[in-house]
Structures are given as structure tokens and as C-alpha cells.
Design goal:
- The chain has one helix and 20 strands.
- It has 301 residues and is mainly beta.
- The strands form four sheets. Strands 6-5-4-3-2-1-12-13 form an eight-stranded antiparallel beta sheet, with no helix packed on it. A five-stranded antiparallel beta sheet has the order 7-8-9-10-11, with no helix packed on it.
- The two termini are 32 Å apart.
Length: 301
């Protein structure tokens, strides 16, 4: 009976925590999204890989509505090529974008994200461009910058993850809306990192840092839906991992602010132990021999 009461209590507390979770609005200034862009326009055999940076800074009025200016940066950070490409605004947890990159679409507005939706809802974008719809298949929470934010698993022809206050953490800020202000044709993209006020708030685990264009082998930003059985503990600063089904191939430890604490890509055992000079919450990204990836949140005591 006591066990049943405990389960009911924990369930109520979990549901209460999800309902009372504070909504994180989209940034209005001093925000940056780094995206890896692979251009296939000129050379299909040797594509051009580069980083494009979206910067949100300053306000503007369009059709009597207030927007936040969106800039595109290309090239190195010391002497970047900067272009004013559009503007964002938020209303009732919906994020809208208008583009200045193409004269034919000047002052037209598209729905970029909708954070008011529930599981099973469909978000309709412009039917003529990109992916015209987004279906919400699941909603959970992810720890970012010491606080939990809602994360939306969506289907738009592929599986994507959308996070409150950031947007897509797999394909990048604007990938599913076209014509998107990238200034680059024939591209595929990957979200690398999100910064706000000069601080990295989210780093894609598939990249080592915000300036990297090379994905880490065996690491996927989308958690596997069929994760291998893994036993994990972190006591007295010692991380212990035991896989009961297959060998571990790689270990990556990431702090809540996106910093990589430790990484080992040469593991070939089903048991792993590591002494950590760290206390607090960590994300442990574990790659396995069959290519699957498990992302576990741990508390190092």
C-alpha cells in the first residue's frame, strides 16, 4: 500500500512539474545560431562545407508590427560578410518570420514555430515552400542552462527536435521554411549551437564546439528510440558505465551549458570507469558498436 501511495505521489509531482514548467520565450536580441551548411550547387563530389551564423539584434517596424532584426554572417568572425535578411516576432507562443532576402517575398510573413501545440497537433506553414506542415509526435523536457525547457519531437518528412527559446536543434533555425535567408543554394544543414548574450546555451552533441564543421563519428543529436540496456552511476566523482547488450564505442560528457567536459572515441569494452573532477548535472552521450546512441542525464555526487 505504501509503495502504491509513493508511486501515485511521484506521478502527481511529475505531472505538476510539467504543468508548472515556465515557458521560455524566443530571444529578442543578442542571440546567435550557428549552422553547418553543406553546399552542393557547384560540386556534387566535393561539396563546400561552411558555417553560417544567424544574429538577432535590433528592432524594426513592419506593417505597424514590431519585429526583431535577423542578420546573416558568412566567412570568418573577424571580417564577416553581414547581410540583413529578415525579422522575427513572437505572439502567443508563435514565432513568425518575414524575409528581406528576396524582393518577391518582401513583407510576407510565415509561421516559423508554434510552442502552444500539443501532441498530435499539426502546424501548417506556407504550403508552397519547404515542408508545408509539422506534426507534433511527442513532447518532453530538456535541461538547458540549469532549467528545463519543453522539447517537441516533430515529423516534417524527417524527425526533428524543436526546443523552446531556440528552435530546431537538428537542422537549424530556418531550415524548414523557404525561401529562407541563407544566401546559399542547394544546401543541407545541421544545427551546431545556440548562444545568448555571449554564452553558449546549447551545443549539438554531434559537434565538439560552436566553430566545428566536422560531426563527431557515431554521435547523433537525436536520441535513439531503441536504446541498448545501460547501467550508469556517478558516485564520489567516479563515472561507471556498464552495457548489458553490446560494447561501448564512445563516451562524451557535456555540461548543461554545452561545454564538452570529456570525450573518448576509442572505447571497445562493455564496462567503462572514469574519475571526474566535476560535481553536478552532466549529459552522458554513449555510442555503441552497432551505431546506436544513448543520451543519459546523470548527477555526479
Amino acid at each position: 500500500m505504501k509503495k502504491l501511495q509513493l508511486i501515485i505521489t511521484l506521478t502527481l509531482l511529475l505531472n505538476l512539474g510539467m504543468k508548472s514548467q515556465t515557458y521560455v520565450p524566443f530571444p529578442t536580441a543578442n542571440a546567435s545560431w550557428n549552422v553547418r551548411s553543406i553546399r552542393y550547387c557547384d560540386d556534387l563530389i566535393h561539396p563546400d562545407t561552411s558555417i553560417i551564423r544567424y544574429k538577432l539584434q535590433g528592432d524594426t517596424i513592419i506593417n505597424s508590427l514590431q519585429y526583431h532584426k535577423l542578420y546573416l554572417e558568412l566567412g570568418d568572425t573577424l571580417t564577416p560578410q553581414i547581410t540583413f535578411v529578415g525579422a522575427l516576432r513572437e505572439l502567443n507562443k508563435k514565432i513568425y518570420i518575414t524575409s528581406f532576402a528576396f524582393a518577391a517575398y518582401l513583407n510576407q510573413e510565415w509561421l516559423l514555430y508554434d510552442f502552444s501545440v500539443q501532441v498530435g497537433d499539426t502546424i501548417k506553414h506556407d504550403p508552397n515552400y519547404g515542408y508545408p506542415y509539422t506534426v507534433i509526435s511527442d513532447i518532453d523536457s530538456v535541461l538547458i542552462d540549469g532549467a528545463f525547457r519543453k522539447r517537441y519531437k516533430v515529423d516534417r518528412g524527417f524527425t526533428d527536435y524543436i526546443t523552446e527559446g531556440i528552435g530546431s536543434v537538428t537542422k537549424g533555425l530556418l531550415d524548414h521554411i523557404t525561401p529562407i535567408p541563407t544566401g546559399i543554394c542547394g544546401t543541407s544543414s545541421d544545427h551546431i549551437c545556440f548562444e545568448e548574450n555571449g554564452v553558449v546555451k546549447y551545443l549539438n552533441p554531434a559537434f565538439s564546439d560552436c566553430s566545428s564543421t566536422q560531426r563527431i563519428a557515431g554521435i547523433n543529436e537525436i536520441p535513439s528510440e531503441k536504446q541498448p540496456n545501460i547501467e550508469i552511476s556517478a558516485v564520489d566523482g567516479v563515472l561507471s558505465l556498464h552495457s548489458t547488450t553490446q560494447d561501448i564505442r564512445s563516451i562524451k560528457l557535456v555540461t548543461p551549458n554545452g561545454s564538452v567536459l570529456f570525450e573518448d572515441n576509442s572505447v571497445k569494452e562493455n564496462f567503462y570507469k572514469k574519475q571526474l573532477n566535476y560535481r553536478g548535472v552532466l549529459f552522458c552521450i554513449i555510442g555503441f558498436e552497432n551505431g546506436e546512441v544513448s543520451t543519459e542525464k546523470i548527477l555526479v555526487k
